[in-house]
Design brief:
Order of helices and strands: HEEEHEHEHHEHEHEEEHEHHHHH
CATH class of the largest domain: Alpha Beta
Structural class: alpha/beta
CATH topology of the largest domain: Rossmann fold
CATH superfamily of the largest domain: NAD(P)-binding Rossmann-like Domain
Strand content: 15-25%
Number of domains: 2
Largest sheet: 5 strands, mixed
Distance between the termini: 33 Å
Shape: globular
Length: 349
């Protein structure tokens, strides 16, 4: 009963549990809302300790995608899928095609894309079982990995945060602490470095840290120490729920803006940041660049890269709009972003 209560509370349209004995696939597809268009969301593959944790993640992520599309002005809905397993050991073409067959049964209500544990080559494999897939590698005729576009959007969100906290949106001389150097995080680090920022970075993978130090002059710290770094902006670009009761007292920054999804462990943590005087740029707005690009692919529009990037650049003004609204209405930036998104969802356009 608890599951059905939760689905009803946030108006999820559909949740599909996927099991394929031949390939060992265990996955969950969640569709939160399709008022604005078909639900788009990445395929996340992680070794979740329990099925309950996998379900919790997919539900949070699907709902976040709905809000991301709404606030970014994208004509898509929110969905997500999670595959239970270690992407380095368990992922194979047969398993991916099995997932594709489940996606295909949804007849276009859900469109799969890449996420943690999957990539554009995997999307090309999934396309062998369904046409309802985005982020397919260029070699297979797709638009490829949207990570760089996402990272560019995050850089626009960071600029907005700098503008709001310092009066100047330039990266030159600023100190950015970046948590997570995956495809998005490393591309973001390069954007910041090339614009003149000083970087402190962390990741669980040693080689990428060595690369960041060598190519970007970044200072490297341990995963836990990143929360204590005194900086202008803390940028989470890895897992969610990193803003929580334990980390909020440790932050030594005036602003937080990053590419990770669901960085607030609970909604109340947005208010806790406000109380500490820390500006939070809502994650689903700041990291919506990849979704803006995917809209062109999913809806069949041929758009040049410069046009996509000009659309992604609007994240800067939209983030400032959210910050102003929060200040004027005496609410957190998270609440202001939710209000804007919910207004568009309710209008269905």
């Amino acid at each position: 009963m608890q599951l059905f209560q939760r689905l009803g509370e946030y108006d999820y349209e559909k949740v599909v549990f996927c099991n394929d004995n031949d390939t060992g696939l265990r996955a969950i597809i969640a569709i939160h809302d399709t008022a604005l268009g078909p639900a788009l969301g990445g395929v996340r593959m992680l070794p979740y300790p329990t099925e309950a944790e996998a379900l919790d993640d997919v539900l949070r992520l699907a709902r976040g995608m709905t809000y991301k599309a709404a606030i970014a002005g994208v004509n898509l809905g929110g969905g997500k899928s999670v595959v239970i397993g270690d992407s380095r050991a368990d992922k194979n073409p047969a398993l991916l095609r099995a997932l594709g067959r489940f996606v295909d049964t949804l007849a276009g209500e859900y469109v799969a894309g890449q996420d943690i544990g999957t990539n554009s080559h995997d999307m090309a494999v999934i396309r062998g079982a369904t046409r309802h897939v985005a982020c397919v590698h260029e070699s297979a005729g797709g638009a490829g990995d949207p990570s760089r576009t996402t990272a560019y959007g995050v850089s626009c969100g960071i600029r907005a945060a700098l503008k709001a906290t310092t009066g100047n949106d330039a990266f030159g001389g600023r100190h950015i602490a970046i948590q997570g150097l995956g495809n998005v995080g490393f591309a973001l680090a390069r954007f910041c470095h090339e614009a003149g920022a000083r970087l402190t970075v962390t990741d669980i993978a040693g080689p990428v840290l060595t690369k960041a130090a060598r190519e970007l002059g970044a200072e490297v710290v341990s995963p836990d120490a990143i929360y204590d770094v005194e900086c202008d902006v803390f940028s989470p670009n890895s897992i969610g729920a990193v803003i929580n009761d334990d980390t909020i007292p440790r932050f030594r920054c005036p602003a937080i803006a990053g590419g990770a999804n669901n960085v607030l462990a609970e909604a109340r943590h947005a208010d806790a940041l406000t109380e500490r005087g820390i500006l939070y740029a809502p994650d689903y707005l700041v990291n919506s660049g990849g979704l803006i690009r995917c809209q062109e692919e999913v809806l069949g529009k041929a758009t040049e890269d410069f046009t996509v990037y000009s659309k992604v650049a609007n994240i800067y003004e939209q983030t400032l709009h959210v910050i102003r609204m929060a200040s004027e209405r005496g609410m957190s930036t998270a609440a202001a972003a939710d209000w804007i998104a919910e207004e568009r969802i309710a209008g269905g356009e």
